[in-house]
Amino acid sequence: MSAFQRLALILALLGAPLVTSPVWAQSKPAPTPPPITDAKSWHTALLRQVWANTQFPTLPQPPLKEGEVPPPLPSAQVTVGFVLDRDGRVLSARVVQGSGKSEFDQAALEALKRATPFPKPPANVTGENFSLQLPIHFMGGPQPQNKPKAKPPRAN
Description:
Blueprint: H1 3-13, H2 39-52, E1 76-85, E2 90-97, H3 102-115, E3 129-138
Antiparallel strand pairs: 1-2, 1-3
């Protein structure tokens, strides 16, 4: 029994009105995205879905000496090509233009995999299969710094 359920039971035994959950705990339903009615909005939805599922890859790092700052993370762009069916399933995927680093190329294909299934194309987009290409950008920059933890004071 959760703490909230115990509290509700105690309040009910005391004669308080039963509340199923506090107002602050009641969640609102997620807003429904606008319906996809044309090819442009469908393509935009595909882009957003892939980009939302893109994760920066783990890159090999040379060992650092104490006090040495890690080098900045590189940026990269990978263009993936893929074929979708009318139900939004990926039938095939490949790297069309790689980044020169296999970690980025693999991360782009994994983003595509995580993003599936995709929204179905609108009725006015004809065909059974859709061949698409999508650039995926990986933005590099400074690496997060691991700050040394403060040493606890010594007891005297």
